[in-house]
Design goal:
The chain is an alpha+beta fold and 301 residues long. It has two domains: 7-54 and 62-172, Uridine Diphospho-n-acetylenolpyruvylglucosamine Reductase, domain 3 (2-Layer Sandwich), CATH 3.30.465.10; 179-292, CO dehydrogenase flavoprotein, C-terminal domain (Enolase-like, domain 1), CATH 3.30.390. It is 36% helix and 25% strand. It has helices at residues 14-24, 37-42, 78-82, 85-90, 92-98, 104-109, 112-118, 124-131, 149-152, 227-233, 240-252, 264-287, 289-292, and strands at residues 7-10, 28-31, 50-53, 63-64, 70-73, 135-140, 143-148, 153-155, 158-159, 166-172, 179-187, 194-205, 208-217, 224-225. A hairpin with a 6-residue loop joins strand 13 (208-217) and strand 14 (224-225). Helix 5 packs antiparallel against helix 8, helix 10 runs antiparallel to helix 11 (240-252) and helix 11 (240-252) packs antiparallel against helix 12. The longest helix is centred in the C-terminal third of the chain and has 24 residues, at 264-287. The structure holds flavin-adenine dinucleotide (FAD). The site of flavin-adenine dinucleotide (FAD) has 28 residues, from strand 2, helix 7, helix 8 and strand 10.
């Protein structure tokens, strides 16, 4: 099928983009990399009156790592963020997740912010952004507001963005030294969409977990954070028993959807495995086991 007719405006700046959103009203959509929106138009899942193309807006292409935090503009491609050494230093979990999202040609055009705004419940980048505690900066023609990741994802393809808001950039605070990260996913083949993913960050100090974040996708209509389990883990020594219990608790109350990739029951079982693997790897990395090539007894393996 072909896309329905639509108006097209290419903008050169963020200001022009939000002014166009105001002008065209709730029938308009932002066009970023087009890797999700154009297929949706072609199969008539979306029929916006106007597309506002931000791909060449110079003030939306930034990837900044001032003060160690990462700031990614709405037009920065997944490939450019994945290969930015500063981004990898500040938010390694996010860059690892980007490398798992689709194929290289897709990542050359698709944007990090576009994936977050699209809010596919199985997608890798929203899951990593949630675990990283990203702040979403939403802009209109009259101002901007910051939305925490916990409040941003509201359901399948639904976010906290209002019709006249553009997601202008995301901001991610760097976790302290002594933090390990891991992104794990299960998919039927390397090329196919993930069935379930898990993202984990663990900060160890003096042999105990000082701070931890766990997020999952593919298990509900939006990516989920395992906040109660994070609180239980904090202050504890990272043992394999603790990690196994945490993975079990993180997934116990899930009621995942079923689709062609797997039933809800299957997703729930797989989720337990990927959460356990993600936590184990993050703990090992935090402890420096991998770099040292040893297992120092504090490991969850
Ligand atoms: C063959 C193929 C394989 C893929 N595999 C995967 C995969 O394995 N995992 C995965 O997660 N994704 C995958 N994708 C999707 C891809 O990563 C998309 O790039 C991503 O989902 C959306 O980013 P985009 O920049 O292309 O956004 P677009 O397609 O331009 O936009 C997507 C939606 O978000 C909105 N939007 C975009 N930017 C903004 C903004 N700044 N503010 C407000 N709204 C905005 C648009 O209006 C639209 O509704 C795949 C795509 C293809 C074609």
């Amino acid at each position: 099928m072909k896309a329905p007719p639509f108006g097209y405006r290419r903008v050169d700046s963020a200001a022009e983009a939000v002014e166009s959103l105001r002008e065209f009203g709730d029938e308009a959509r932002i066009l970023a990399g087009g890797q999700s929106l154009l297929p949706m138009l072609n199969i008539r899942l979306a029929s916006p009156s106007h597309l506002i193309d931000i791909g060449r807006a110079g003030d939306l292409r930034h990837i900044n790592t001032d003060n160690g935090s990462l700031v990614v503009g709405a037009a920065a491609t997944q490939w450019s963020v994945e290969n930015d050494s500063g981004a990898g230093g500040s938010a390694p979990l996010l860059t690892e997740a980007i490398g798992r999202a689709g194929q290289v040609p897709i990542r050359h055009r698709g944007t990090v912010v576009g994936s977050i705004a699209h809010a596919d419940p199985s997608a890798e980048i929203p899951c990593a952004a949630l675990a990283q505690g990203a702040t979403m900066v939403a802009a209109t023609s009259t101002g901007e507001r910051a939305v925490p990741a916990d409040e941003f994802f509201q359901g399948p393809y639904m976010t906290a963005l209002a019709d006249d808001e553009m997601l202008r950039e995301i901001r991610i605070e760097r976790w302290p030294d002594g933090t390990g990260h891991a992104f794990e996913e299960f998919s039927h083949s390397h090329e196919s969409w993930p069935v379930v993913t898990a993202a984990a960050l663990v900060h160890l100090d003096q042999g105990s977990i000082q701070r931890v974040a766990i997020a999952m996708s593919g298990v509900a209509g939006r990516p989920l954070r395992a906040t109660a389990v994070e609180q239980e883990l904090t202050g504890q020594a990272p043992t394999s028993e603790l990690v196994a219990d945490a993975a079990q608790s993180a997934t116990a109350d899930l009621e995942p959807f079923s689709d062609v990739f797997g039933s809800g029951t299957y997703r729930k079982r797989v989720a337990g495995s990927v959460v356990r693997r993600a936590l184990t790897t993050a703990i090992d990395r935090a402890a420096g086991d991998r770099a040292a090539g040893t297992n120092n007894g504090g490991s969850a393996r």
